[in-house]
Amino acid sequence: MSTTEQVAAPVQAGGDTGPTRRTGNRLKKFWPQYVAVAPFYILFLVFGAFPLVFSIYLSFTQWDGMGPQKFVGLAQYRYLITDGRFWNAVENTFIIWFMSTVPMLILALIIAFLLHQNIRFKGFYRVAFFIPNVTSMVAMAIVFGSVFSDSFGLINSAITALGGKEFGWLSDPWGIKITIAVMVIWRWTGYNAILYLAGLQSIPTELYESARVDGASMFSIFTRITVPMLRPVILFTVITSTIGGLSLFTEPQVLLGNDGGTGEAGMTIVLYQYNQAFTQFDFGYGAAIAWALFIIAVIFAIINWRLVSERDTTKPKKSRRNTPAAPTSPEASR
Amino acid sequence: MTATLNVGNTRLADPTGPSSAAARRKTLVSRIVVHICIIIGVILSLFPFYWLLTMSTHTTAEIFGYPPKLGFGSTFLENVKAVITDVDLFKALLNTFLISAAVAILVMFFDSLAAYSFAKYEFPAKNVLFTVLMATFLVPGSLSLVPSFVLMSWLGWIGNFAALIVPGAANAFGIFLLRQFAQSSIPNELIESARVDGAGFFRTWWSIGVPMMRGGVAFLGIFTFIGTWNDYVWPLIVLVNPGQQTLQTALATLNSIYSTNYGEVMAGAVISVVPLIGIFIIGSRHFIANIAAGAIKG
Predict the structure, then answer these.
(1) In chain B, where are the structural domains located?
(2) Nearest to A256 by CA among A165, A154, A135, A168
(3) Do residues A132 and A140 touch, judged by C-beta distance below 8 A?
(4) Spatial separation of the C-alpha atoms in residues B176 and B135, rounded to whole Å
(5) How far apart are alpha carbons B1 and B7 in whole angstroms?
(6) Rounded Cα gap, residues A126 and A109, in angstroms
(7) H helices then E strands: how many in chain A?
(8) Of the candidates B5, B136, B232, which has its C-beta nearest A48's C-beta?
């Protein structure tokens, strides 16, 4: 919320900022500021914007990365629409996203609520919940692979010890999706809980006090004050979870390999893109998949935005306090 | 739980008053319930690490055995030796450290410069430039794997650490974050008086801006280091020579080639995870506060 106070910028305090000066003078005067911000824009132009534009071109070609490029028009997209493997990957991505995001955000809210109580060892608890988020997903996918292993895994051992029947966590289509979802939940619940906790701490105490005075129950305080006040943070976590969920790659790739496991039950969109471009060397099709993913992401963004603006009209008052800002996750920063 | 619901920083008193013994007992019970719930969550959160550590101390036969061994075994050193002879994990550790440190240092340098300029100076087109910067957040990285790979091959950077370091040397997230730090923590009067004494832009950035933003800069450094360390798909694509793998790709190779020797794979995973957890715990207090600040302050 500190954006509005751009006070007395030192350079302009000098005085001679007349509107009639020539651009040469201005550049001479402001060159250090431009030099300071330039590296980001140069890097973004070369390594961000150019590949983006270039990938549109690539998606209209057939190319194995070495031989001659062949312009094929919309053929890659026409193939994409009829490609059952691609739609399987889309379906898997959505199922895993839903199975992980909903429990994850609910659990995170509960943990944040518990951590917000006046308890001891809060610092230790926060670190313990956050550690999964900074750990290498390759290493942890290997660990989860052994815990959920069909033959010797800890989970199946526990099930058989209790008299149940072994389940194919890494071979059954649903087992595979559940295992991947559990990995996502394990990694991101603590991260989201920390965000919610910070949101809870920013809710003014007076709101609660006046609700208490009015005789509101704990439940209605939670649903009428806590959740609405947290809504911007919740929206932020929903958006980051959507971006993360759509770009799921490491977990299925390490756990199940480049083909996404039995019947491609763990194939995600990004894994399929990787598979087509870097194991089948079909660069044109890989680029087309990437653009399909982008369109899906845009549709999601519009849905998210719609949901929010609808809720805004029904609850106009108490939403504008905290505006979520930047994606703060190691994943999103790349 | 009613009695202890913490609102803001003051606990709401139970209507019967804190002096009532029944209320106090109720408070105690609900506190214990809260702790038990949290501890269950902590155990679930930390268990995979414990399990990783125990597996790295067992032979493969022991890991595959039934019932599973819940405690520690005695073959950790043998497993580590097997890892070292099969893949050059320490080379990979060194590579990963150098790449992550290089990216972190460059990001701290370039992002703090840009953030200082955006936060403390006015210059033509500043708002347009900043809007463009914010818009780049919307570009998902996984969209450009294929064209970025092609670009790297044109530059001759396939199999070169430059492919991992240069594109990440400055980022919008860090500039945005540090700009907030600069706005709230650098007094304009200080810059003004340094300017009167003849210090130029870069001089004031280095001697006033950086020291005053150091909390944010340190956080950004750790954050970038951890993110680069854990990066998987990009190194997998551009580092094609076996001798220059990062920890993540080396570990994935170990897992796919030597998957029959489970104890060995787990020892490799331990080597890749432990340094990072150490770094995180050292900077954790700062780290967690800032992670949240990014989403809340805006």
Answers:
(1) 2-55, 81-296
(2) A168
(3) yes
(4) 12
(5) 13
(6) 14
(7) 14, 2
(8) B136
* Nearest CB partner across the interface for B151, out of A39, A50, A324: A50
The nearest CA of chain A is from the CA of B241 a distance in Å of 15
Q: How many whole angstroms separate alpha carbon A8 and alpha carbon A26?
A: 18
- Taking CA–CA distances from B69, the nearest residue in chain A reads A154
Q: What is the ipTM of this complex?
A: 0.85
Task: Retrieve residue A304's tokens.
Answer: 């998210």
Low-confidence residues of chain B: pLDDT under 50: 1-18, 298
Given an 8 Å threshold on Cβ–Cβ distance, is A41 in contact with B132? yes
| Pick from B170, B230, B285: CB nearest A137 | B230
Q: Do B247 and A191 touch (CB under 8 A)?
A: no
Residue-wise pLDDT for B160-205, tens only, equals 999 999 999 999 989 998 998 898 889 999 999 998 998 899 999 9
**How is residue A58 written in tokens?**
């690539």
The CATH code belonging to domain A75-314 is 1.10.3720.10
- The CATH topology of domain B81-296 is MetI-like fold (1.10.3720)
* Contact criterion met (CB < 8 Å) for A140 and B48: yes
Peptide bond into B67 cis (omega under 30): yes
Query: Is the Cβ pair A36, B148 closer than 8 Å?
Result: no
Kindly identify which residue of chain A lies nearest to residue B226, measuring between CA atoms. Answer: A134
Report how far residue A87's alpha carbon sits from residue A89's, in angstroms, rounded to the nearest whole number: 5
Using a CB–CB cutoff of 8 Å, tell me whether A132 touches chain B: yes
pTM here?
Answer: 0.84
Q: Which residue of A has its CA nearest to B262?
A: A146
* Rounded Cα distance, B167 and B234, in Å: 11
pLDDT over 70 at A277, yes or no: yes
Long-range contacts, stretch A13-17, CB < 8 angstroms, 24+ apart? A13/B192
Contact at CB, A119 and B34, closer than 8 angstroms: yes
